[in-house]
Write a structure and sequence with these properties.
There is one protein chain. By secondary structure, the chain is an alpha/beta fold. Helix content is 18%, strand content 25%. The strands form 3 sheets. The chain has a 7-stranded mixed β-sheet, sandwiched between helices. A hairpin with a 7-residue loop joins strand 7 and strand 8. The longest helix has 13 residues. It starts with 9 loop residues before the first strand and ends with a helix.
């Protein structure tokens, strides 16, 4: 399987080990060279997470191979794959900064050098919500004043859909390192902690 662009896919299992493997995917943790193929045991709960292009690819995996993944956690991405028809419910955590101009939350042309026009975030979340049989309306809570808001839907057994927005966040990974790519990351939320908590809830024995 070949992926284009930057594959920021992190594969997680409840064992936390690289040894229990039998199916082939692309990409992996930072210590593995780019393009490394990894195999995972079919009986091991598997989740995917990605940022930006990696998030777009993570959504695509859920669209095309839902039977091989328990859930996805994405940051600063959107559902680009159409049509998207997951074969079964897939849990979703989507985190997005409302000041992101590289991949705008409301859709439109990104500020990056590619000049890509992106679909808005909400329709992709709604598609997964419908697949998962989630009820409306969501329960929405805020933290840090109005900086972060989390919408949580009640869904089919063993699935969940969460959308977290951060008022002061750009395209950089919230709570991460400051890099010159898209400005300083938001310190109002740690995306790593949020996604790790989400993943642990899906793969815990």
């Amino acid at each position: 399987m070949a992926f284009a662009c930057i594959a920021l896919l992190v594969l997680a299992s409840c064992s936390g080990e690289h040894g229990a493997i039998s199916r082939t995917y692309a990409a992996g943790p930072p210590q593995w060279p780019a393009g490394t193929e990894v195999q995972l045991n079919e009986s091991t709960p598997t989740t995917l997470t990605g940022h930006s292009n990696g998030a777009i690819m993570t959504y695509r995996f859920a669209c095309e191979r839902a039977g091989e993944v328990e859930g996805i956690g994405v940051y600063a991405g959107t559902l680009f794959k159409t049509p998207c028809a997951p074969s079964r419910p897939v849990s979703l955590l989507h985190i997005h900064g409302l000041l992101d101009t590289n991949l705008p939350f409301s859709g439109g042309q990104g500020s990056g050098i590619s000049g890509v026009t992106f679909p808005p975030v909400v329709p992709g979340v709604e598609l997964i919500r419908n697949v998962n049989g989630c009820a409306e309306p969501p329960v929405t809570t805020s933290a840090n004043g109005v900086v972060t808001a989390t919408s949580v839907w009640t869904c089919a057994p063993n699935t969940s859909v969460r959308l977290m927005t951060i008022d002061d966040a750009n395209h950089e990974w919230a709570g991460g390192l400051d890099t010159p790519l898209a400005g300083a990351p938001s310190a109002k939320l740690n995306a790593t902690t949020e996604i790790a908590t989400f993943i642990n809830g899906l793969v815990a024995p």
